[in-house]
Structures are given as C-alpha cells and as structure tokens.
Amino acid sequence: MGTDEFIKEFKGAKISRVACLGAGPVGTCTMATMASRMPDVQFTVFDDNTNVVCGCQSGPLPFFEPGLEELLDKVRGKNLSFTSSLDQAVANSQVIFVSINTPLKTTGTGKGKAPDLSGWENMARRVSKASNGAHKILVECSPLPISTGETMRKVLAACGHPGTFEVLCLPSFHRGGNAVEDLSNAETKMLLGSQDTPAGQVARDTITGLLGPWISGDRIVHSNVWSAEISKLAQNAFIAQRISSVNAVSMLCEKTGADLEEVMRVIGTDSRLGP
Predict the structure, then answer these.
(1) UDP-glucose/GDP-mannose dehydrogenase N-terminal domain: from which residue to which, for each copy (predicted)?
(2) Given 41, 46, 195, 236, which is the most exposed site by the fewest CB atoms within 10 A?
C-alpha cells in the first residue's frame, strides 16, 4: 500500500469519521465547533488523561472557555464523544487532528528555550502502530514550532508500518478565552498547509471539502506546511511587537500630555499601519 493507493482512497472521498488527539482547549473547541456544523460526521476526541476525558464527556470541564459548555451540550452523545483509548480513536478515523502541548526542553541543548518535540514524535509512533496499515490524513492544529510536520513525517516513515500518511497543518488562530466565538464567526479564515505532491494535493482537497460546512473554500488560504507553521509564529510575533509599540507610545503620551487615543487614530489612518 503506497501513494497510489492513498490517492485512490481519498480522491473525492467524503469524510465521515474524524479523530482528535488531545482534549485541551484547542482540540475540544475545534472539534465541538466542527461537530455542530457537520452532523453527519462522527468526531472522537482522545486524551491520555482520564480525568480530562471524564470532564469533557460529562462535566465539569477541566478548563474554562466561554460558551463551550453550551456548545458541547448540543453535540455530546450525538456526533461527538471522548475516549482514553488511542487505538479506538485512530482505528475508527479517516482524518486525525493532532492537538497536543509542546513544552520547552528540560534537559540538554536548548534547555528552557527550545521546544521539546518528543511528545509529537511519540504520538506519531503510536498513531502509526494503531493505524495497522490503514491510510490516514494527519492535521496539526495546535500551536507548534517550525518543522513539527517534517518531524512527524520522518517518524512515520521510520516506523516502517505499511500505512501511508499525509501530514497537513491547520494552525489555530483563535484567541484563548474567546475560542468559541472566534471559531463560530462567519468571517473566520483558515490557513491550510500541505505538501506540493499528488498525495498532498489530494489530502488538501479532502480537508478543504471536510471543512466546507464550516469554512467555505474561498476563506481557506493554502500554503505549504512550512509556511503554515511559520505564519502562526510570525503572526504572534507581529502582535507582540504591536502591543509593545503601543505601550511605548502610551508611556510617551503620559510624559508629554498627548492623548493616546488620538495618536493611535492618526497612526491608524496610514494604510501601511492601520487600522
């Protein structure tokens, strides 16, 4: 089973079974939103932490996101479920979203600074084993460092299992504490990164079709996986720079008697900087 079989299986396919690995705020909010828009698709969310699974399945939630509890009430027991069995989640899915944490290294080179990708590597091994040779599309959807997709592809290839995988990147741009509203916004745009290969293009088209009831195709920006990963980090950096600049201007206004709102309004009239 290889690339040709992957293309044959997914080209024009209608996805009906989706899994998400990681029941944190990003994974749970994203899957709950998708489940509410796609009643004909069965969503299964996996987490190793049984307390998290129980909280998401029957409450209370292990984290707070405004509107999430109400959204879950509409889809739990219908087309959204939670499980602590990775084998079950992977075996019963065609598409797998991966939403796990990426802590900093605690030992070795880059300790306290560099991201620790061992969790992603281990998850790739577990997915490869649980897939038992079946073709799967994996979609990174949590905040992640550059090269995560490449790392997962290498691990999947090194595992030697006969299943063929395509790894895509769908970075999360919603705001913490405002995730449900952001994801439910009709103006929401998405960035989908994929490989520029025949199998990668089929996987891209498959995920674009899956997202259709939620995000129309014209609101999805396509790029390669590296660009998608860098775009998320670059946006975070630009936002941080903008906040830092506003804080600096605010301090200057306080010392001179200038009105910060007036200054920012003037700056906002420049198309290179505003609104």
Answers:
(1) 17-203
(2) 236
Spatial separation of the C-alpha atoms in residues 135 and 167, rounded to whole Å: 11
In this structure, which CATH number among 3.40.50.720, 3.30.1240.10, 3.30.420.40, 3.65.10.10 belongs to the domain 3-223? 3.40.50.720
Half-sphere CA count of 236, side-chain side, radius 13 A: 14
d(CA 46, CA 52): 10
167: nearest Cα among 142, 191, 203, 202? 203
Tens of pLDDT, residues 177-209? 889 999 988 677 899 999 999 999 999 999 999
What's the pLDDT tens digit per position in 3-60? 889 999 999 999 999 999 999 999 999 999 999 999 999 999 999 999 999 999 998 9
* CA distances to 50, 90, 136, 156, 162 from 132, in Å: 24, 9, 10, 12, 8
Long-range pairs for 124-128: beta carbons < 8 A, 24 or more residues apart? 124/151, 124/152, 124/155, 124/156, 124/159, 125/155, 125/159, 126/86, 126/90, 127/21, 127/86, 127/90, 127/96, 127/156, 127/165, 128/155, 128/156, 128/159, 128/161, 128/163, 128/165
Burial 54-84 (b: 16+ CB within 10 A, else e): ebbbeeeebeebeebeebbeebbeebbbbbb
Domain coordinates of the chain in residue numbers? 3-223, 240-268
